[in-house]
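Sample 1 of the test manifest.
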Amino acid sequence: MRKITLSNGKTAEVECLSCALTSGLIEPEGGVILESSYFHAHQDVAYPIKGLIILASKRHIKCLDELTEEELLDYTHLLSKIRKAQREILGIDYVYYFYNEDTTHHFHTWLVPRYEWMYEFGRSVESVRPVLLHARNNMNNSLNRQEVLSALNLLKMRLNH
Ligand SMILES: [Zn+2]
């Protein structure tokens, strides 16, 4: 069990954060962006970056090769759909995708948009961690959080019409 702090400041004990989020036990800040029978998409608000989306499976699995054929199709379809909305709504030219199978949660992929300011932390995969930490430590102000939430609402509207 891990203790997590919810966006309303309360704490909860959950076995797996991804299960708690995708089952609706925990409502992610900003809400659900997109949901299918197999997947669930939300903003990772721990890192206030516009359009930083997490696509998580609903089943408690860890690895890509554990997805069924049907889930795989749904997964690539949703990834591409979210990616397209990031481009059209937020003007995002490039996205970094990553997921780690040794996660303490369960299968989820990050779609991390690249913005100009991120290049000061370098290019490619080694810049991802410093970028995320910078966002968490230095961009956690109300103005930026507001921007993140409005970007999220725009994405939501595009993806659910
Ligand atoms: Zn889980």
